[in-house]
Design brief:
The chain is an alpha/beta fold. The chain is 39% helix and 17% strand. It has helices spanning 7-20, 57-60, 69-81, 92-104, 118-133, 150-155, 189-207, 233-244, 266-269, 296-301, 317-332, 335-357, 396-407, 429-447; strands spanning 36-40, 43-46, 51-54, 111-115, 137-141, 171-174, 212-218, 247-251, 275-278, 290-294, 361-367, 370-378, 383-384, 410-411, 413-415, 418-421.
Length: 451
């Protein structure tokens, strides 16, 4: 599809947005949202006809890009046949989506509870864990994000939690491993892993093992920085949970469905949680859908005892039809393998080469189509390019970096002092190289703020 400039139409869209749309996570009078005219594949464009290569995949969910014709057709076909139906019934699209997801989840996570998105998936996973164990507390990591609903934002470990932190939600935060900014004075990945596990054990001991229902972790933290857990860490958490009868919940909302070059990030670490949340890439975000994959043991808790939870749109036929089509497309087109190959052969070598040339790049980390660049003022001290949770003038270096990327046709994913490289999982090699060239130029702007 070729972008057709239409500034007048764009102005009308923008005016209606500014008059009536209340945007999330924003000071409403300080934002200037781009009016988007269309999208296809790895690109979107505005009403001026300017095209952007989307290195953010929306919000890291268009895993097969925009407007994939097979998924669009599946939604249209489902809408013509059965647009919606209540969740208490067995519906073909819902049943088939659950079957395809269960085929790919690790271990015995064979029961699927559908939600509208990732935050309510986390809400329900924690409710299941509390009911299964009869315990009140949940442990989660700093440097994490689990959603914007009340319970999900309380288990979140970044500043978006602060305004809604009730202090009575039964949530305790702990430090997960992250060697580059170690809280444990570690010098190696092995030390970081061992000390992080010891810290978690101590936290559990002081909180009381018998009070803890669940430990929830993003398998690979996404928005917080794509910090790859060191070898042995997730297996160690699994052992701790088994020892104390704690439910192990892995949040795969961002990392799942091909993003890491595997169907789920848990596959990289050979670990099986008791509950796994998903959303985003399950249907490339075409229709809102999330869910919880449930182990046999936890499912058995509710075999003859009603589960006290549900949603009007749980397993919505349009969303599930999109999931069926998306999963089938990913399998037929080898999208997961494609993400793994290009991640290893194109993205990683290119990012490491950029790191060698740009003093603003402190660290490169990631896998598949899931990468982060840690931007710093000084490589030796590792001072972040902008302060933690910076806004306004303090955020100028990252704002300047992002503006340069956009000026060169690249839409970046920027959070705090990081830029993430998270294009669609079926992005082409040529598109990757185009985006990486624009990233190279934008990093030169970030370099101006180093010392």
């Amino acid at each position: 599809m070729t972008p057709q400039p239409s500034p007048q139409a764009g102005a009308a869209v923008k005016a209606a947005d500014r008059a009536h749309v209340f945007h999330s996570w924003s000071a409403q009078e300080l934002i200037d949202p781009l009016a988007v005219a269309g999208a296809e594949g790895s690109y979107f464009w505005d009403y001026e006809g300017k095209r952007y290569l989307d290195f953010s995949s929306g919000l890291v969910y268009t895993n097969i890009g925009y407007q994939h014709p097979k998924v669009v057709a599946a939604i249209q076909e489902q809408a013509a046949r059965m647009t919606t139906f209540a969740p208490a019934f067995a519906v073909e699209a819902r049943s088939e989506a659950a079957r395809l997801i269960a085929e790919r989840t690790p271990g015995d996570l064979d029961k699927i509870f559908f939600t509208n998105g990732g935050a309510d998936a986390v809400e329900h996973a924690l409710r299941m864990a509390r009911l299964h164990t009869g315990r009140p507390k949940v442990l989660s990591a700093y440097r994490s994000y689990h959603g914007g609903t009340q319970q999900a934002v309380n288990v979140t470990g970044d500043p978006r939690r602060w305004a809604s932190d009730s202090g009575t939600a039964g949530v305790v935060h702990f430090w997960a491993p992250f060697l580059y900014r170690s809280r444990f004075y570690a010098e190696t990945e092995e030390q970081e892993c061992a000390r992080a596990l010891e810290h978690l054990k101590t936290t559990i001991a002081f909180e009381g093992p018998g009070t803890i229902a669940a430990i929830v972790l993003e398998t690979i933290p996404g928005t917080a920085g794509i910090m790859m857990p060191p070898a042995g860490y997730l297996a160690g958490v699994r052992e701790i949970c088994d020892k104390y009868g704690i439910v192990f919940v892995l949040d795969e909302v961002m990392a799942g469905f091909g993003r890491t070059g595997t169907w789920f990030a848990a596959d990289l670490y050979d670990v099986v949680p008791d509950l796994m949340t998903f959303a985003k890439g399950v249907n490339s975000g075409y229709v809102p859908l999330g869910g919880v994959a449930i182990s046999a043991e936890i499912a058995a808790t509710f075999a003859e005892r009603p589960y006290p939870g549900g949603l009007t749109y749980s397993g919505h036929p349009l969303a599930c039809a999109a999931a069926v089509a998306t999963i089938n497309v990913m399998a037929e087109e080898g999208v997961v393998e494609h993400a793994a190959r290009l991640g290893a052969e194109v993205v990683e070598p290119a990012l490491r080469e950029l790191a060698e040339r740009h003093p603003s790049v402190g660290e490169v980390r990631g896998t598949g189509m899931f990468w982060a660049l840690e931007l710093v003022r000084n490589r030796e001290t590792r001072e972040p390019l902008v302060p933690y949770n910076a806004t306004g003038q303090a955020a100028t270096p990252m704002s300047a970096f992002a503006a340069s990327a956009k000026a060169h046709g690249l839409w970046p994913f920027v959070n705090m002092n990081r830029t993430h490289v998270v294009p669609p999982c079926n992005v082409s090699e040529a598109e990757l190289k185009e985006g990486l060239a624009a990233l190279d130029t934008a990093l030169s702007v970030a370099d101006e703020y180093t010392r």
